[in-house]
Amino acid sequence: MGDRESSHTGIDLDIICISELVTRDEGAPEKFHDGIRSDPNDYRVYLNGIIKRMQGRDAFLTFAQQINNVNRILSMDYSSAGDIARVILNDLSLTAQVLKLVNSSIYRQFSDKGISTLSEAMIILGTDEIRELAAGLKIFEMMKSRANSMVLRDKMLRSLHRSAVARQIEREKGGRTSDAFPISAMLYEFGEYLVALLDPDTYIRVEVALEEEGVSRETAAKMILGVTYFELGQMVALKFNLPQKIVQAMRPVSLTAGQSLKIAPKEETRYLCAFVYELCNIPALENDAVSLDAAGTLVDKYRGLLDFDARQALTLTCTAMDRVIRHAEILGIDPVLTEPVKSDPGIKNKVKLDLGISRVEEALGEGLSIHEIFTRLIDTMAQCFYFKQIVISIKKKENNTMVPRFVRGEKRPDGFGQVMGFKIESASDIFNNAIDRKTDIIVKDTQKEFSRQQIPSWYMEKIACPFLVKGFGIFPVFVDGKIVSMLYVDWDEKTPDPDQNTLSYIQRFRQQMIKAFTLHSK
């Protein structure tokens, strides 16, 4: 893209050497671009791969150690308050968070004057309560520090929500159900979280299989990994010596609505965790008929376990989410879950699209090169939309032209990229109009007389007519008010015009491009 020049200022991609964009420093940490090897006939292959990455030399070096730290707290069942306090006090950040939380509105009823030390907290709230609270906060902090994608952020929030629901159930029942309950509920999706964190490529494969094969999430995981997410989570928990009662509670149950439940006392936590998991997957809308109906089905399924009706169950999960929201400032998060997946005629695979967006966000968070970021971005667009051609052009400063750098779509003759390049000048055509007016332009029919008056002849002769382009869209990219790039898409008669939802996604990709340029300039 040209040689570096010290006199260059601003955010022009052409000052970057292309060889630097595609070469990674040998000493740089691994980024897990490739999936872990799996064998559907031998779960140990994938399990060993996950364990190896957890213990690896890369950016997740401390992950296994953090789990061991959590385990130290969880394993202190019969230790003295002083011993437990010393373990917590070794982590100053954890100590501060525990004290902030016990002084929040949830625990305010226990002390009007406020709690200033861990010892005081243990006297007022109980040793087990503080030990469990510290372990939960440690798990949450471990997940939050790695939530560099929407998928991981969602899983972190859902784990916190399940924990809050579990604590609320304990209060409703009038005592502690089990000291494993809130922690087990929090870790219920541990296996799925690990795959999304350590092996995002394989996680996407499972999500695609789920949608295309029409099977459950656990069946899709077993098809790809050789093991279900729940089984994987339990195996890893055992590997790191988490308490047996927690591992046992993470095991899913098989129930059908209306059957009579006879649960042994030692199995109660396991069934409660399964109930909480399903309850938290219902949209938390108290007055929504669909949500109420789903809650009714769930309550009937677990009848005999809890004395809740549908309305009470839905209120329970809403109250717990309200508690998560109230403590957002203390926990340092934005407690908003993503919307459920909805079908869209202009999108091939929405699950894959959302995961692709998350992968671009990961690349931005990891400081990857613009080449890597834009490659992920345009590959996602090509795989998930019905566009015939997608082009990312970059402004070349030396001759003030817009030059295609990334091209995806149906096969076009060699030199297609060069044809799509154009001179940036006074608004003489539709491409320059978009730049001059700083606006997106959608042409739905290239054959209409009005459109043809605005479209440059070079485009009609070399692109539109030879390749039967029905419509196209151009989306200029500005940073600090200066044009730096342009995103182009087109479609033919067989492809529907992009709707507002599709255009919203394109605008999200543009925001990611702007962020990439901005980060690189720094």
Summarize the helices and strands and which ones pair or pack.
Layout: H1 18-22, H2 43-54, H3 63-74, H4 81-89, H5 92-102, H6 118-125, H7 127-144, H8 150-173, H9 181-186, H10 190-198, H11 200-213, H12 217-225, H13 229-239, H14 244-249, H15 268-280, H16 289-301, H17 310-326, H18 328-331, H19 350-365, H20 370-384, E1 389-396, E2 401-409, H21 416-419, E3 422-423, H22 430-437, E4 441-443, H23 449-454, H24 457-464, E5 471-479, E6 482-491, H25 500-521
Helix pairs in contact: 3-7, 5-7, 6-7, 7-8, 8-15, 8-17, 10-11, 10-13, 11-12, 11-19, 16-17, 19-20, 19-25, 20-25
Please name the defining characteristics of this protein:
six-stranded antiparallel beta sheet, Hypothetical protein af1432, alpha+beta, single chain, 8% strand, 522 residues
Q: How big a fraction of the residues is strand?
A: 5-15%
Helix content: 40-55%
Under the CATH scheme, the architecture of the largest domain is: Orthogonal Bundle
Rg (CA only): 27 Å
Structural summary, described in words:
This protein is an alpha+beta fold and 522 residues long. The protein has helices at residues 18-22, 43-54, 63-74, 81-89, 92-102, 118-125, 127-144, 150-173, 181-186, 190-198, 200-213, 217-225, 229-239, 244-249, 268-280, 289-301, 310-326, 328-331, 350-365, 370-384, 416-419, 430-437, 449-454, 457-464, 500-521; strands at residues 389-396, 401-409, 422-423, 441-443, 471-479, 482-491. The protein folds into two domains: 43-331, Hypothetical protein af1432 (Orthogonal Bundle), CATH 1.10.3210.10; 350-521, GAF domain (Beta-Lactamase). It is 54% helix and 8% strand. It has a six-stranded antiparallel β-sheet, with helices on both faces. A hairpin with a 4-residue loop joins strand 1 and strand 2 (401-409). The chain is elongated and about 80 Å long. Mean pLDDT is 77; it is low at 1-30.
